Amino acid sequence: MRSGSARVILGIETSCDETAAAVVTEGSVVRSSVVSSQVDLHARFGGVVPEIASRAHVELLTPVIAQALIEAGVEDGEIDAVAATYGPGLVGALLVGVSTAKALALVWDVPFVAVNHLEAHLYATLLEDPSLALPVVVLLVSGGHTMLVAMEDHGRYRLLGSTLDDAAGEAFDKVARYLGLGYPGGPAIDRVSVDGDPSAIDFPRAMRDDGYDFSFSGLKTAVVNHVRKHPHVVTADVAASFQEAVVDVLVAKARRAAAEVGARGMCLGGGVAANTRLRERFLDACVEDDLHAFLPSRSMCTDNAAMVAAAGWWRLRAEGPSPLDSGAEPGLGLPLLVD
Ligand code: KG4
Ligand code: ZN
Fold this sequence. Notes:
By secondary structure, the protein is α/β, with parallel strands linked by helices. It has two domains: 8-122 and 301-337, ATPase, nucleotide binding domain (Nucleotidyltransferase, domain 5); 133-296, Nucleotidyltransferase, domain 5 (2-Layer Sandwich), CATH 3.30.420. Helix content is 44%, strand content 19%. It has a five-stranded mixed β-sheet with strand order 3-2-1-4-5, sandwiched between helices. It has a five-stranded mixed β-sheet with strand order 8-7-6-9-10, sandwiched between helices. Strand 1 and strand 2 form a beta hairpin. Helix 2 (50-72) packs parallel to helix 3 (91-108), helix 5 runs parallel beside helix 7 and helix 7 (217-229) runs antiparallel to helix 8. The two termini are 35 Å apart. Bound molecules: 5'-O-[(R)-(carboxyoxy)(hydroxy)phosphoryl]adenosine and zinc ion. Zinc ion binds at residues 117, 121, 142, 270-271, 303.
């Protein structure tokens, strides 16, 4: 079995509602990246239904992998390792990807690499900018997580802060639902906000100048209370003002963390990193603070398998293959440095 010299990695991602496969060479050259979103299947429920997600992964994963191999022009015997997300995520969904990856690794006689989904989001940035100078502060904002992480080296992370209640993406989704903007909420609020005034309503910025943890549930309640009190308020103004409050807190904490850590740059990761206003404000902050800004493309911000293959390549080099009896870990956290 090849391991140390592995170059070509097949990545598989099934942790939530995206079925994805990608072929990446040496952790940075994306030869294919196929993402099949199940968003339409879950839209009428207003959120991801775990059982529906698992069943859809079972149906979609084989064709998605086949497409990724074909698009990459992979020759027989060219894949050196198979990497799959093993957590965090929905257990049934994760198991589909992990089992498939292990089966392929066995058949092809190549290593299997279990990849942490959060670490994969961090590597999405590296994929597109391999010259990344460390340390960097990474703001990881998705539907399930809001984390501020100092990345000191490959695989060496220090968690500076995380959310005490709702994740940023979850807040976007809940507020959008309340405003009747549909699902998924983040892109809907992003779109509607273009026509709104971000300073129309002065929503609270919880804990902005206090530590590195986040709290968004009070903001969500403030939106509900405001709309109840002012039923004729313009929805675009509410959306834009809500978005501004979230972005304000995220950017303020990230730049304060970067200053404290002595970071050379700041990175964005996770689905919310696709947000137009967050990208704008993040870039402005980096220019002002003389920091290198690393913003993955929008397709690399949301769940995909290229980032899984990239993280898998680094993990394989650092630690070798994962055992074939390793399972899914739905509650997995980021592997952190211990002082
Ligand atoms: O990372 P991701 O694809 O899945 C996980 O949660 O792991 O993130 C999905 C989240 C959802 O909450 C979605 O509403 C949010 O990212 N999102 C956005 C935007 N695009 C996706 N939030 C704000 N603005 C966007 N443009
Ligand atoms: Zn994600």
